[in-house]
Amino acid sequence: MAFKLSDVKLNSGLLSKSGSQSVYLRHVDLNSGGTYRCEVSAEAPEFQTVAAEKKMDVFVLPTEGPKITGGLSKYRVGDTVYVNCTSSKSKPAATLRWYINDEMAKPEYVMEHSTTLHSDSLETSSLSLKFIVNEFHFRGGNMKLKCTATISKVYIMSNEELVFGTGLRQQTSGLQITENMSHVQSSSSTTLWTTANWTISICLMFYIICNIKSSGIQRSLVDQFG
Known about the structure:
Layout: E1 9-10, H1 14-17, E2 25-26, E3 34-41, E4 49-56, E5 67-69, E6 74-76, E7 80-86, E8 95-100, E9 103-104, E10 110-112, E11 116-117, E12 123-124, E13 126-132, E14 142-151, E15 155-166, H2 169-225
Protein name: Ig-like domain-containing protein
Pfam families: C2-set_2
InterPro entries: CD80_C2-set (IPR013162), Ig-like_dom (IPR007110), Ig-like_dom_sf (IPR036179), Ig-like_fold (IPR013783)
């Protein structure tokens, strides 16, 4: 036997699908949540009754993952990161968590805001992340910020952003290498130019010697046949 309740509709095949420990409901909404009680009564003359109850929670899951706003694409060491994560509407409100490079953010970095209740009885939650960028926040020149939204054990979604660092040591080191390479190239160019000068000088000397020898031969011929 079942007692009719508003906002609770039993499955049309209740008698065939239900057993001593289960009951099927259809078209469940938020009003269907609550404590359900089952009673078992013995026959006459004792009419002993045994009852058990269980709370049922009805979830409305978000239609999309959490959104991250307020972030920049690049940060320098010493800059302040101030980003916000907002969940989609759900019931109950999602629990938000921030991660920096897949490690949970320190408690002093996060600021929790009050939950927003909408006209359809659904809720949204918001969690901010604020910290000063240090060099160790960058892994290979990048920093990953991730926000997860969780509802009990039935739902978890995440959203993440990859930001890039500027003015890091490894980048400065790269510039120094470039500068050193330019000095090497400059020195190499000087060496080539010096070698070219020697080559020109040798050619000139060879040309002068040839001219001198040629002049000597011409004089000898003149003296012999003149």
